[in-house]
Structure formats: C-alpha cells, structure tokens
Amino acid sequence: MAMLNTTPPAPAAGNLERASFTGTASEYFGIWIVNVLLTIITLGIYSAWAKVRRNRYFYGNTVILGRSFEYHAKGLQIFLGRLIVIGFFILVNILSIIHPLFSVVTTVLILVALPWLLKRGLRFSARVTSYRNVRFDFVGSAWGAFVSILLGSFVAFITFGILAPLASRWLWRYIFNNMRYGDRPFVTEPRLKSLYGVWWLPALMVVIGAALLGILAAGTIAAMSAMSEDEAAAALAFSPVHFVFILVFVVYGAAALIYRIGVRNVVWSAASLDGRHQLFSDVPRWTYVWVAVTNVIVTIITLGLMRPWAAVRMARFTTEHTGIAVVGDLGEILSSIEATGAAISAEYMDMEGFDFGF
C-alpha cells in the first residue's frame, strides 16, 4: 500500500510548534446544555447566540505559541444574517408559486447570490477571528467562490468523484490563498499527485460498496421474483438486506472521513504564512475515523448527552496534530506582525457585517 508522506517539517526548517486544545468536556457541557435549552425555549432564535458562545469557547481554548485565538462575532450579527437569507428564500418560493416562469428567474438569482453569500461567509468568519490582537481577513471574490466551490463540486459530481482531488485543490487554494493574517498572506499549492494519493483508498471503498449493493439488489430481486407477494414480504423482513445497507452506509461514511482528513493533511502541509512559515497537519487517517465513528456511537447511545465530550475529544485530537514551523526569531516575527496587523485590524473591526450562515 502506497503511503502518503504527511510528516511535518523537520525542526531544522524552523521552530516547530504544535497547537493544543485546553478545553474540557465538563466545562463545555455547561455551555452546551444552556445553549440547547435556550434554543428550544426560544424556538431556535437563541441558536445565533449559542453559536457565538460555542465558538468563543473552542477558539479561546485553541492555543499555539502560548496564545489562544479569539472570536469576536455578536449573536445579533448572526441572527440578522440568517433572517436575511430566510427572507430571500421565502421570496424566491413565493415568486415560483405565482408563475412557473419566475422559477427560471429565481434559479438565476440563487446562482448569482450563492457565490456571493459563500464569499461573505468566509470573510465574516475570518474577520471575527483574531490571534494576538491581530485579525484575520479574507479577500476572495464571488467569482472565485463560484468556480472553486460550485463549479468544482459539479465537476466532481459529473465525473463520479474521479476529479474530486482537482475540485478539492480548487476549493482549498481559493480559501487559503485569499486568507490574510493582518497583512501577511497564506498560500497553499497542494500537488494533485498527493491529493490523488489520499483519494484512491476511499474511491476503492465506494466502488466496493456500490458493487455490494448491486449484487445484493440483483440477488434479492431474483429470489423474490419466484415468491408470492406474502412470501416476498416475509422473506424481506427476515433477510440480512438491512444489515448490508447499514454496512454500506458505514463504508461510505468511513470513505468520506478518510478522504476529508487526507485532503486536510495534504493542503495544510503545503501551506505557508508570509511565504516562510510552514503549516502542517499529520492527523492519522484511521485514528480520525475511529474517533469520529465512536463519537457518533456514544452520542447516540447517550441520547445526545455525551455530545460535549465528543466535540472536545475531536477538537483536541485534530488540534494536537496541527502546527507551524516558524522560520527566524520568533519574538521579532510576532512583534512585527502585531505592529502591522493591529493597524489593519482596526480598519475593518466594525465592518464584518452579517453572518449569512454559508
């Protein structure tokens, strides 16, 4: 089996610093249970403020180079953004009901609006995030969002996933190459060869799952065609077909997780800040699948009460396998970024606008 090299940069390339997560399940449970109860009581309205409390906890407990991130969004920004999006889609549906021809117009409106909403969502998320009092920024265009996200997804879909690595490259280059930390740019140039290196295993799993479903469907149809209606219903109820469907669902889910984390490792390990400082991600793919799957199982068994434990467990696991190799004197670099970044942050501190949920 060919293994993709996701080893982080050697310490000789810079000061190798791994991130860490300092939150605990017991702390987050208090935040989570209040969020859930208030969201239910307010019929979902409080969910905007719940998102702020949740993100502030997770950002505030994600630490690298001795400092944590901060999340500055306000619940009202998120709530108003959601109202605007809901109002837009209500209007679109009303127009479609009034006259069928309006459905063409509304389709065009959605295709025009969605990339803009995606771009605005990325910019909002970046601008309400800071590290060492320096805000992040996102400068991507709506056209870039259309090509990298919508067109890329369509290309992956019509090629049955064969060009999924190409679509992933478009997506992550759009996100990373338009991201800024103060005035310092991020850049990533993941190689297609490396992306296909993490693609072939999940692709093989999908093919095997599809073949299994096809064989099962053909065998079931052939067996039931010779039975009466009552016999077929009884045979179907006691057949192992349900277990096979569950197995295929698990295989597909595992394939998606393996591909997702593999792409993360490739993209982050090909990324840099300010053209010098190398980011890296070396999350073990099968361990990631184990953590994700067991999180879901435990959450279901406990009727959701262990959801905070699962969220903290995943955050700690992925964070500890992420970091940066800083080249040069760490103190001088951080001081320089803080000096220039603080001024730039002040320029758009009150310009985040609304979070449209995209």
Structural account:
The protein has 358 residues and is an alpha+beta fold. The protein has one domain (16-347). Helix content is 65%, strand content 12%. It has helices spanning 25-41, 47-60, 75-98, 102-127, 142-158, 164-177, 192-197, 200-225, 229-238, 241-269, 285-301, 307-320, 330-347, and strands at 15-18, 20-21, 62-64, 67-71, 129-131, 134-138, 179-181, 184-188, 271-273, 277-281, 322-326. An eleven-stranded antiparallel β-sheet has the order 1-11-10-9-8-7-6-5-4-3-2. A hairpin with a 2-residue loop joins strand 3 and strand 4 (67-71). Helix 8 runs antiparallel to helix 10. The two termini are 38 Å apart. Residues 1-12 and 343-351 have low confidence and may be disordered.
Mean pLDDT: 84
Helix content: 55-70%
How many structural domains does the protein architecture include? Answer: 1
Q: Which strands sit side by side, in order, in the main sheet?
A: 1-11-10-9-8-7-6-5-4-3-2
Could you list the spans in which at least 5 consecutive residues all have pLDDT below 50? 1-12, 343-351
User: How would you sum up the major sheet?
Assistant: 11 strands, antiparallel
Distance between the termini: 38 Å
Count the strands?
11
Principal-axes shape call: globular
Element pattern in H and E: EEHHEEHHEEHHEEHHHHEEHHEH
Radius of gyration: 24 Å
What is the number of helical segments per DSSP (H or I, 4+ residues)? 13
* Secondary-structure class: alpha+beta
Relative strand content = 5-15%
Q: Give me the oligomer status.
A: single chain
